[in-house]
Amino acid sequence: MIHRRNLLIATAFAALLGIGNSAYAQQDPIRVGVLVGTSGASGQIGNWTNRGVEIAIEELNEAAGFQRFSMFSEDSEYKAQKGLEGFNKLTNVDGIDVLITSGSAVLPTIAPLADQRELVMMNVGAQSPAMAGIGKFTFSVIQLADFDIAVMANYAFDTLDFQRGAALYISNDIGQTNVVEFERQFTQLGGEMVAIESFRASDTNYGPQVAKIAAAQPDFVYLVGDVDVAAAATRQIKALMPNVQILTYGGMESQLFLDAAGAAAEGLLYTQTDFDPSSDDPAIAAVAQRYQTRYGEDFTSPFIGYAYDAMMVVAAALDAAGETGEPLRAAIMDRRDFPGITGDVVFRDDGTVSKSVIIKGVRDGAFVLVDRVGASE
Amino acid sequence: MNLFLQLAVNGIYAGSIFALFGLSFALIFATTKVWHFAQGAVYSGSALIVVALATTIGLLPAILAGVVFATLGGLGCQAGIYGPLRRRGASMLVIVMASLGVTIVGENLLSILFGPSQKTLLVDVGGPIIAGGIVISRAQLLAPIIAVAVVGLALFVLYRTDFGRKVQALIGDEELMQLQGIATGPIRMACVAFGSAILPIAAVMLLLSGTGVSPYIGLPVVLIGAMSLFLGGINSMLGAAIGGFLIGFVENVALYFIPSSWQAAFTYSLFLAIILVRPTGLLGRRLIQSSM
Amino acid sequence: MATYIIGILVTVSLFAILAMSLDLLLGYTGLFTISHAAIFGIGAYGAALTMQAFGWGFLPAVGVALGASALVSAAISLPSLRVSGDYLVLASFAIQEVFYSLLVNLDGITGGSAGLHRIPQPSILGFTLTRPLDFLIAYTLIAVLIFIALSVLVRSPFGLLLKAIREDEIVPQTLGKDVVAAKVKIFVIAGCVAGLAGALYGSYYTFIDPLTFDVHASVLILSMVLIGGMGTLWGPVAGAALLIILPELLRFFPFPSEVLGNLRQIFYGLIIIGFCFLRPTGLVRAR
User: Fold this and answer.
1) Any transmembrane segments, and where (chain B) (predicted)?
2) Does residue B34 surpass a pLDDT of 50?
3) Which of A101, A225, C82, C247 has the fewest CB atoms within 10 Å of its CB?
4) Spelled out in words, what is the top-level CATH class assigned to the domain A4-142+279-343?
5) Among chain C residues, CA nearest to B95
């Protein structure tokens, strides 16, 4: 960090030379690394994450009046090997001071290394419960899946009065862990899972899986997949079972989903952190406006919000800490409670976040609040 | 019982589409002797074009655009990559690698152009037909008809026309044809063109039932095509179509007995067992000496 | 910068071992398989599970990994005794897919899609590898030893038999050589080497999941051998170096982040196509 007296001298120099304060500060911005997958089938979430950080940094730099932060982005393909290489590049070559990342195959590989280097790392996408406590310097701004799933299972059993559940999931990390957890929670409450079917990421026709589910006559289908895949699955479920209730998770919430699912999305229910991109809240409206201006499309995905919030947590904690590394980590743990456009960010001891979870749904082709079931813990 | 019939309906549907995959792969493989992996990118590219254009210019013109793209894509691979490599005396392995290279480039270009995520076709084709508790969608009704028509057309041309006899001769013994002074190039290109052009047709059959298409879903199309060919007996177009149909049908009906998470393992194990026990395929007569 | 480069070189040494082992099948014996990532994965999962489930040390775990991958590789050799060429390509591909399904579906053992976390780092004779430089030294040394051992192997009478099988199976058969035994043997040897690479891989990254060992990994190893030069040992090493380092260099070009990943893949594809045209025999030519 810049020594205060040096700064004064430099500012004096700068004033003498007739250049602004900002010109000096530009020489030493805080380097923010972003390590997400931008190629491959899940590249969309990576792109959203990059954009979320981008607009946050744009806003912070405008507020500071100089380039306070600079951004370095690498592609991890959401794979351990590419993730580690990207991490090494960001830390050793670009010299980043803080990292915003996601990917449940990448985080376990790099979290121990981040601890060694005392690099604060923000998880903005990996929801696997295994992400809890994977590193002292790792903070999850996104809620891990187990709590959301408990809320959904309870809502299905108690509020919707459903007894017979079915699940359709993509056979990857998110799909497998979510469905195992949902089955555990739902059967514990006294419900029964009458059909659990999966498909591979490269499959596009889920007809036979849906047929098996339909034959089991469930009250609802719990659906887990990437946004685009889940949209196609939603259409195929509704084609065979027009009246079945589909339950899913917050990752769905995006224009992409509505466009791809069409009318079949109607009535869908999902858990979400207290996130409403079309809210009147001036903070959220400003972000939505900035996003619209910069990328020419509506701000709809929560992944943009998580990335944005992570960057804002870093900036706010830095104000208190003054420098990155251990002081930044301590400052985050010290304050614990940060405002966020995806709901308030409150960290637990193990670095995971506790957020309020609400039930949202699709009505008339739009995402709307359905029920407030209360905050976690 | 209802479930079994419903799965059978799905099996006939998937089988019809896989029959087209099999025919497409077989036509190109038999006449070029190339493992045309890039077919996957041609497939997803043409399907993405159909989806992108269907809402603006209508479904039929969009399909036409997809067919044009697929034909040009297939011809481009043959004329721009495989043909020149073959003339340089490249081994089959090198051509396979080049084809994989084209696939990687193609998938990622498509991802830049269309985005990485799956797109679905939002065209209303009317509700399903429900008969005795069995739900049959319009796409499921249409697919077998289209498949029979396309395969029938291919077989008619192959066995009832002068051109078809030349294609058979080309598949059987290319050198002999060349000795007789017949230019094999145009015949081969025609087969590649037809084999590629039926890909978007198959894609539309899938898209009509709400399935998605992304730049990255092409590889299974090639593998199903290849498995169909080897299952049906190499160099047999009818065999490949039947092989494809069987894969689709068995893979679906098997779900009556096994969980869907084991479907891939089941299909590939079964395929492995069949070609180990009967390497000539179900309909094949003789084992062609490997070219690799 | 140093750690970044060291990290890349560790990856290069791992893939050099893998590519050399595949070349035993592909280049020396003429057996084209797309299942090498499966054998690689057996080694990685075998070692990781041995250490995690039984609490065994690194060396016994490597022993288990070698045994398991040799066994599976011998099993993969069975189709090669029955079918060849195009058939073997597809048969081995089917094996690759079945293996991937098993990794995902046997989640009670393999951890399923979520993979295995916190794999212990290699510890030999009380010395544990932790720093990137430790890994580089140890793994490079292992790669060099394998290189030497394999160069002795390919020059031996057995190695000559393999080349004879590659040229035409019938000839050694009529000379009374046991072609079947030779094929199984080379699959076992290639399996052991690939399994070792798997064990080393898991303990370096400390995390493995099914995606690490999918068909794309098989294709990557295949392209390393082909670009480097089949039927040589320097070739696969050069191919591994090239295909790991070149895409990394692209990180240094200021592309917009949204297309960066795609551009790197396109570059990888173009390298493959370029080599097919300009240097179809690979970087290193077989003598």
Assistant:
1) 12-30, 92-114, 141-159, 187-207, 238-258, 264-284
2) yes
3) C82
4) alpha beta
5) C276
